[in-house]
Amino acid sequence: MQKDQLFTRRRMLLAGVAALGSAGTAGAVLVSDGEETVRAAAAPAPVPAPGPQARPALGPSAFRLQPLTGYGPPRTPPRKLKVRDEPILRIDGRGRRMVLTFDDGPHPDYTPHILDTLARHRVRAMFFVCGECVVDNRELLARMAEEGHVVGNHTWTHPLLTTLGRKEIRSEMERTSDIIEDTYGDRPQWFRAPYGAWNRATFQLGAELGMEPMAWTVDTTDWMEPGTDTIVDQVESGAAPGVVVLSHDAGGDRSQTVRAIREWLPRLLDSGYRLTVPRRRV
């Protein structure tokens, strides 16, 4: 009799928690400051020319995303999205906003230095990670979550997806989403194809797994290791409202990238640019 009563009480408690959870998620919850948004349906516009330089200071972000690993509910199927015909290349929003993105990591020799620089200037960024790199560097994803960065899916082994079948592509995406959720505490909502090689299957499977496709507007060319000065010039000459900047924190010697961001990031901020991240969907 006591066991039956205890079981009944537990069911009532769980029902109450579920009701609270439904009420709490009815409104929009953002990973951003609530102002920037992503172009939802229209085709990407041409990159605007850099505007006149202003000098408002960048305000600190109070956002901190606490990792949920080990404490969240059982994994739920992702919300399927509309299938796009091309990736997102830029963002919309008021003011001189840009998005910084880093591919191929995390890497223990370079990612921590990039995170240190972002933290020093109170800037959030997007990291498109490879699943095989996460395996031995989970603590870096936990730090990204703690410091409010957005983690996206960059496949497990960084293959050229256009040469793979649907089953292989899905495995590359799905395994990576799983380890991101297990480590970062949330399932990725963004996907970037390695080498920027997209096809119909990548768009379809990404949408099925609840991820929007994001490309970039400005390529720092740091993957070519062209020298710190060249990387700085690529960012500063390409800076404009709405652009998405591509850099790398792994996949080669990224010491030039580490040095370059220490130079160009404070300059952009002093010029009035706001470095931001997209909204989080609910």
UniProtKB/TrEMBL annotation:
Ranges where the NodB homology domain occurs: 96-276
Alphabetized UniProt keyword annotations: Hydrolase, Metal-binding, Signal
Domain of life from the UniProt record: Bacteria
Class in the EC hierarchy, top level: hydrolase
CDD domains (alphabetical): CE4_NodB_like_6s_7s
SUPFAM superfamilies, per the entry: Glycoside hydrolase/deacetylase
Cited Gene3D superfamilies: Glycoside hydrolase/deacetylase
Coiled-coil annotated spans: none
Any matching Pfam family: Polysacc_deac_1
Residues spanning the signal sequence: 1-28
EC id: 3.-.-.-
GO molecular function, one term: hydrolase activity
Listed name of the protein: Polysaccharide deacetylase family protein
